């Protein structure tokens, strides 16, 4: 077999399930693992506000990193805001 092997691409369901797993990991004390999973996830979904928001919550709630969380909340908001302002 000489065909090219395509890398596995996650879909939206995989993304949501991975984020839920990160919350589970953090809730059970595996914060480093949760942040590592989010880092891998952001590689598949760059500038995704759901992933940025999840990281912000984990950093705020489990690490007490409020300033870093605030940066991530603002970043998530910027990425979730529609760029066309046709309704103004």
Structural class: mainly alpha
> What share of residues are in beta strands?
under 5%
Terminal residue distance: 56 Å
Report the C-alpha radius of gyration, rounded: 16 Å
Helix-strand topology string: HHHH
Describe the largest sheet. Answer: none
Contiguous low-pLDDT stretches (5 residues minimum) are none
Number of helices: 4
The residue fraction in helices comes out at: 55-70%
Tell the overall outline. Answer: flat
Number of strands: 0
Average pLDDT metric = 89
Q: Could you explain the architecture of this structure?
A:
This protein has helices at residues 12-27, 31-44, 49-63, 66-80. Helix 1 packs parallel to helix 3 (49-63), helix 2 runs antiparallel to helix 3 (49-63) and helix 3 packs antiparallel against helix 4 (66-80). Helix content is 68%, strand content 0%. It has 4 helices and no strands. It starts with 11 loop residues before the first helix and ends in an 8-residue tail after the last helix. It is mainly alpha-helical and 88 residues long.
